[in-house]
């Protein structure tokens, strides 16, 4: 049996403003910092002690990992970071207000862009102020791999190599793993873990800052579908709030 903990970063400055964020590298809000610290205390209270942390290359996930692990007394943990755990690239929607986008394009299109499995938003132009082309952290990424937009399916495709090559070996070695990432990169991982269908995944939302624990069997399949939030009541309300963004 292996233990895997998934943690979405705390509220970011752009979550608070209701903007599509994607690969734009915004920081946590003060509330998000507190959520991250609380996430660490939840780990401590539940007796979950990760041996290794995996994060994306994005500041909000790295800050969350540091704050959560700091409050759990685990700031020393070995860490591995990868762009493959980044948030879904939101294409030309990056920097746009969610409520205004919904008003301008209608509920159907808004839902498709936000939660459908295989409809990406229009690509972002390389000279857009919210493009990541030229960002030094992606300098080693081959040009043809650098996304200009992504749907959830694209995220599954770029995340799974990291799951199989980097995370599974840690779990197989008996390590408890914590993955600190993003709403949509974690939706992609949960879809894979729980075998959620392409239609059904539209209804799944991940709250900020609340650890989600999975016990995995010998085949690295969840013992209990959906895992277990370490604060189920808070998770319920927060999931609802994510689902209702843009309304
Ligand atoms: O803007 C984003 O990058 C994501 C996560 O914050 O938003 P959504 O939940 O709308 O996919």
Automatic annotation (TrEMBL):
Substrate binds at residues 8-15, 21-22, 60, 87-90, 98, 114-115, 183-184. The record marks 182 as: Transition state stabilizer. It is an enzyme of class 5 (isomerase). One of its GO terms (molecular function) is phosphoglycerate mutase activity. It holds the Pfam family His_Phos_1. PROSITE patterns: PG_MUTASE (PS00175). Keywords: Gluconeogenesis, Glycolysis, Isomerase. Its EC number is 5.4.2.11. The active site is at residues 9, 87. Belongs to the phosphoglycerate mutase family. BPG-dependent PGAM subfamily. NCBIfam families: pgm_1, PRK14115.1, PRK14120.1. This is 2,3-bisphosphoglycerate-dependent phosphoglycerate mutase. It comes from Sinosporangium siamense.
